[in-house]
Structure formats: C-alpha cells, structure tokens
Amino acid sequence: MGSQVRRCPRYPFYASAEILEVETQTRMATRTSELSRYGCYLDMLNPLPFGTALKIQILYNKQTFGSAGRVIYSQPNMGMGVAFGDMETPQEQTLEKWLSHLRGS
Hints:
Blueprint: E1 11-21, E2 26-35, E3 39-43, E4 53-60, E5 63-75, E6 79-84, H1 89-103
Antiparallel strand pairs: 1-2, 1-4, 2-3, 3-6, 4-5, 5-6
C-alpha cells in the first residue's frame, strides 16, 4: 500500500460554495466537506474532470472566501478535490481565520 503524504492537515468543514468553470463560464452550487490551507473537497454528484480550471467562492459565517482553483482529483457520484491558486491577501486572511478556528486556536 502506498502512503499519502499531505502538505498540511485537512479539517472537516461544511459550508456553501459556488464554482465557476472557467472555460464554459458554467456556475454550480455545491458545498465543502473538508478544508486545508491549499484546497478543499467539494461534495458533488457530477464533479468536474481532473485539471479543470475554476473559480471558487465559499460562504461561511457571513464571510466569503474566493480563489482561482484547479480540480486535482475527481470521484464520480461523490465529489472532487480542488487546489486553490494564488489569492489576494484579504482572501488569504479569511482562510487563515477559518483554519485557526478549526484548529481550536
């Protein structure tokens, strides 16, 4: 069995999300189930294929986080892992605030 090494921990995180598939400009509503510093997992019955470029917005406790992203793995009838791209400082601060809360700090 191969081992999976992550850059940072993932935390259970349930929030509303909206994605915009960049190429077709298709919007989809979904929700997160995990969050990390570098990405999230989105629950979706029809996830996008590996490598798809997208923009993501996550709404949690009346705060919004937005970032460019890319699908890094896709599981049919379950969801997909999204890696965040470069983000503006205010977006990074919002993400860090959420993660700090999840860590219990």
